[in-house]
């Protein structure tokens, strides 16, 4: 039975933090949590990526975006949000 709060590890600039998330909450909520954990909440150009480099859609739920407990995610600059 899944716990109410699952965790993932987020890495940013060589530092790792374990963060709780709710599978049915949007990726945006996990992204906001990660920004706060690393003290970078002012940078709207950051996104979460899988280890393989796939950017997570922040409008999808974490579960629908493929996030699973224990996963390693990378917080880094988005390739999409930077322009146009």
What does this entry look like structurally?
The protein is an alpha+beta fold and 84 residues long. The protein has a single domain (6-60, 67-77), classed as Phosphatidylinositol 3-kinase Catalytic Subunit, Chain A, domain 1 (Ubiquitin-like (UB roll)). The protein has one helix spanning 27-38, and strands at residues 6-12, 15-21, 46-50, 72-77. The chain has a 4-stranded mixed sheet with strand order 2-1-4-3, with helices on one face. The radius of gyration is 12 Å and the shape is globular. It starts with 5 loop residues before the first strand and ends in a 7-residue tail after the last strand.
CATH fold-level label: Ubiquitin-like (UB roll)
Overall average pLDDT: 88
Largest sheet: 4 strands, mixed
| Total number of domains | 1
3D shape: globular
> What is the β-strand count?
4
Q: How would you spell out the order of helices and strands?
A: EEHEE
Strand composition percent: 25-35%
Corresponding CATH superfamily? Phosphatidylinositol 3-kinase Catalytic Subunit, Chain A, domain 1
Order of strands across the main sheet: 2-1-4-3
Distance between the termini: 44 Å
Number of helices: 1
Second-tier CATH architecture: Roll
What share of residues is helical? Answer: 10-25%
Please identify the oligomeric state.
Answer: single chain
Q: Helix/strand/pairing class, anyone?
A: alpha+beta
Q: Taking Cα atoms only, what radius of gyration do you get, to the nearest Å? A: 12 Å
CATH class: Alpha Beta
As residue ranges, the low-confidence spans are: none
